[in-house]
Specification:
This protein has one domain. The protein is about 35% helix and about 15% strand. It has three helices and two strands. The longest helix has 16 residues.
C-alpha cells in the first residue's frame, strides 16, 4: 500500500480549453509565511509559459500579494 499523498500538481487529462482562470491563495504563494514560495512559483510559471506557447490564455487571480511581501 502506498501512503504517499498524491501531488496537487500531478498531470491530469483535461478537455480542450483556450482560457483558464487560476485562483491562487495566500497559503500556496507564501506557505511558510516568509514570502513567496520559490518551488510553487516556478511550477506555476512553467505551467503558464507552456500554455502560452500552446496558444492558450492563462489568468492568475490571487489574494497573495500581501503575504508574498
Amino acid at each position: 500500500m502506498n501512503d504517499a499523498a498524491p501531488s496537487p500538481f500531478a498531470e491530469q487529462t483535461l478537455p480542450p480549453w483556450r482560457r483558464a482562470v487560476l485562483k491562487v491563495g495566500s497559503s500556496l504563494l507564501a506557505a511558510d509565511g516568509g514570502g513567496l514560495t520559490p518551488r510553487f512559483a516556478l511550477g506555476l510559471a512553467q505551467f503558464v509559459s507552456a500554455n502560452l506557447v500552446a496558444g492558450r490564455e492563462v489568468v492568475i487571480v490571487s489574494s497573495g500579494a500581501v503575504a508574498a511581501g
